[in-house]
Amino acid sequence: MDDSHGRKFQKDLNAGLVALVLLAVLSRSAEDLYGYEIAKRLQKANEGESLFKEGTVYPVLRALSANGLLTSRIVPSYSGPPRRYYRITEEGRAVLGDWSGIWQQTRDFVDRFIEGAQE
């Protein structure tokens, strides 16, 4: 059996989870973070292999910022191009709380079927 089904399933799952995970990472950070730094944290949290492609992170960060869930600022860098740093807003924290509850309900629902409790 080829792995294309697994890759497609993971891609579909990730599409809805990237924003939730990014909000969670930023909510737990005392300082502003830039995209590459966030991508590296995600990779480290999954034992060196990120579930999300690094290129996926940037458009989601921009969308979250455009929706008022993050603020951003650009800082010049001496070692490369300027970096855009992100911080979660109060609205972003509220949305994270809502989305976390939805995620937990969804996860529990799916687990009931996977674990065979519902038939």
**How many domains would you count in the coordinates?**
1
Strand content: 5-15%
The chain-level structural class is mainly alpha
The count of β-strands is 3
Question: What's the CATH class label?
Answer: Mainly Alpha
The order of strands across the largest sheet is 1-3-2
Helix share bin: 55-70%
Explain what this protein looks like in three dimensions.
The chain has helices at 4-27, 35-45, 54-66, 90-114, and strands spanning 33-34, 70-75, 83-88. Helix content is 61%, strand content 12%. The protein starts with a helix and ends in a 5-residue tail after the last helix. Strands 1-3-2 form a three-stranded antiparallel beta sheet. It is globular. It has a single domain (4-114), classed as Arc Repressor Mutant, subunit A (Orthogonal Bundle), CATH 1.10.10. The longest helix is centred in the last third of the chain and has 25 residues, at 90-114. A hairpin with a 7-residue loop joins strand 2 (70-75) and strand 3 (83-88). It has 119 residues and is mainly alpha-helical.
